[in-house]
Sequence to fold (373 residues):
Amino acid sequence: MELEGRVKLGKKTKDLVKRLNGKEIAVIDHKDIDELAAISLTNTEVKAVINASSSITGKYPNLGPEKLIENGIFILEEVGSDIFEKLNDGERIKLIDNRIIKDGIEISQGKVLDRVKLEERLIESRNNLEDELEKFVENTLEYAKEEKELVLGLKTPEIKTSIKGRHVLIIVRGQDYRQDLEAIISYIREVRPILIGVDGGADALLEVGLKPNIIVGDMDSISDRALQQENVELIVHAYPDGRAPGLKRVKDLGLNAHKFPAPGTSEDIAMLLAYEKGAELITAVGTHSNMIDFLEKGRPGMASTFLIRLKVGDKLIDAKGVNKLYNSRLRSKHILQLLFAALVPVIIILGVAPPMQQMMRLLLIKLRFSLGF
Fold:
């Protein structure tokens, strides 16, 4: 295998994809590539991915590498973190099998991750899954004991947006978020729920022509365009001790924001905010709700998510996978059935109308003369 292209480097995949323009070689340092990262890389149409770390360690069956290989993207992994010192943005390199060539000189080697090796790792990871599940459950329960008062007793910030008695739609840029969002677009237009974008979920709303009412998050994976929408309330997710690194970015853009100190994830506090402000119904799109989701986010447990979903559960509907539940397709037989159904009353009306009866008699007479009867 041999391919050539210009490189772009970024240790954080979610930041790098914003700078990729297509047909480039992405250089990342991403252990256990998650599905969302893989989809983001695929959408930029990269030629190849060079990973300083292992793309799938076998710890759990992460879905990212499979997505990349399915889309014909070459993966060279475990090249070492020093690759970031050997390459600069825009430099042209060649990949020849497992070797990286710059200016005719080999600068590094890695391991090619192809479909055969990927399947071996996936089998290994599935065998490890039971042990990981046990650890995950233990961590969840342990932290739930420590965090229950902190989570259940949280005070939500005062906001201008009126939620009481309204439906609320919370958008997270998670697995299948785009398809699920498009599947419920009729509901959104008819009911007009309050729209809460969680970090990049705000951009997801803009992609389908919708505007968030509230944006909640760390503010690290959202565009300036989304943050600068008019009449949008911003809520920065802070650490329980009050530190809020994302607040600086908001202020640098000349914007104001509420601060919400809380453990757990930003989608957790978005749900809690909607619940505490009196939402009649909370619909979640793209949220993380199972062990693989959380392991892909690098979390060993889901204590706060577990507790908050227990609290808001009577009002919460998870729309994950709704696009798979009902996928309407208009088939050719349906079109023929519609045409036939439309023609039946027309034929009946024409058949009983006196002018049509006279015309039919004339046609029959003409036909008889033509045949010699």
In short: The longest helix spans residues 115-152. The longest strand covers residues 2-10. The CA atoms of residues 249 and 311 lie 32 Å apart. Residues 139-325 form one domain.
